[in-house]
User: Which sequence fits this backbone?
């Protein structure tokens, strides 16, 4: 049974793991804390970047030999394979760790088995401590491994009556500078930012991260079915971040002269959302921030491809103008996409609401 000291150490490991958000993809974020036999912390670490040492290795290095008989607290089951780095399970055994407590089992078929390796070496292994908290923090990577597509967060900004723009389509600015800064943090934590052709035409968005020191720029993706929304000189084509334009596979275009182009099959709502997500997943994308307008958001919702909703609601009333979500294939209240609200927070004068589907997506 976990003690108060165990819980405190795992909470610290979870906090350490969060430092890797936006830097470790396509790998997970992981934190590790090592305590000696007296319960004193002797080493801490987190996975800092893909291809670099894992959290356990950083913690073992900081412990500097004070690991015989120690306990390691890890947010994810220690890996059991050799990739760009060696297996962490073996490193813990070699260091003389006598007990390992981890929060979440590794669902990656290639890396799993660390717990078995540890037990076979005589290490006491315990799992599940603060699993819900660790899963919530690592949800993008876990979703991508479990269901074979990137985790999708849909972000929108709206008035209190649900309008994303006024009747004349003007929308700058509904929400506050504080909310807009928070969106840049979301971008920095995501592999990809996606908008549709309507947003590209009306707003000429930049989509790069600003105001977040050290941020890794996400891939900017424009879903431009006919290949007509993004033209030379568009802000999304500058060199601030990489850009990918997704177009229908039967379109003739000169966009390939401007940037990377992805051809996808058509669907009832423009391009096939599953095909887009599959193509991104094949490129190593684990998290997507959907910033597109109501039409693109409706297509993702209709495809069952929204894993989190992040709404910024401003204390403004507009009365007319486009809604945040267009046709999502919902024709009756029984088909409504029910959500569980996970957080509400004041961001400047605005309210940020975070919610997830009440029914988790199924593995394919």
Assistant:
């Amino acid at each position: 049974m976990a003690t108060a000291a165990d819980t405190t150490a795992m909470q610290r490991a979870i906090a350490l793991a969060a430092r890797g958000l936006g830097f470790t993809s396509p790998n997970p974020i992981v934190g590790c804390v090592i305590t000696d036999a007296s319960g004193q912390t002797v080493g801490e670490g987190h996975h800092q970047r893909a291809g670099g040492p894992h959290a356990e290795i950083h913690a073992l290095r900081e412990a500097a030999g004070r690991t015989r008989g120690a306990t390691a607290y890890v947010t994810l089951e220690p890996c059991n394979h050799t990739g760009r780095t060696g297996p962490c399970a073996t490193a813990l055994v070699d260091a003389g760790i006598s007990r390992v407590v981890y929060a979440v089992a590794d669902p990656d078929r290639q890396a799993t088995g660390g717990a078995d390796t540890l037990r076979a070496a005589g290490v006491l292994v315990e799992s599940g401590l603060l699993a819900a908290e660790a899963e919530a923090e690592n949800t993008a990577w876990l979703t991508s491994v479990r269901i074979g597509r990137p985790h999708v967060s849909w972000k929108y900004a709206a008035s209190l009556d649900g309008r994303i723009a006024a009747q004349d389509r003007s929308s700058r600015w509904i929400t506050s500078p504080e909310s807009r800064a928070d969106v840049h943090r979301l971008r920095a934590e995501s592999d990809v930012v996606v908008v549709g052709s309507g947003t590209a035409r009306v707003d000429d968005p930049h989509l790069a991260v600003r105001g977040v020191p050290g941020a890794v720029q996400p891939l900017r993706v424009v879903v431009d079915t006919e290949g007509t929304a993004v033209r030379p000189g568009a802000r999304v084509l500058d060199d601030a971040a990489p850009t990918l334009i997704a177009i229908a596979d039967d379109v003739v275009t000169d966009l390939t002269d401007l940037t990377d182009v992805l051809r996808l099959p058509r669907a009832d709502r423009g391009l096939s959302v599953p095909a887009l997500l599959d193509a991104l997943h094949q490129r190593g994308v684990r998290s997507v921030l959907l910033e597109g307008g109501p039409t693109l958001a409706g297509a993702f919702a209709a495809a069952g491809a929204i894993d989190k909703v992040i709404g910024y609601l401003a204390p403004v009333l507009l009365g007319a103008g486009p809604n945040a979500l267009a046709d999502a294939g919902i024709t009756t209240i029984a088909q409504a996409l029910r959500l569980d609200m996970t957080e509400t927070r004041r961001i400047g004068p605005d309210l940020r609401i975070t919610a997830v589907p009440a029914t988790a997506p199924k593995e394919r």
Remarks:
- The longest helix spans residues 4-17.
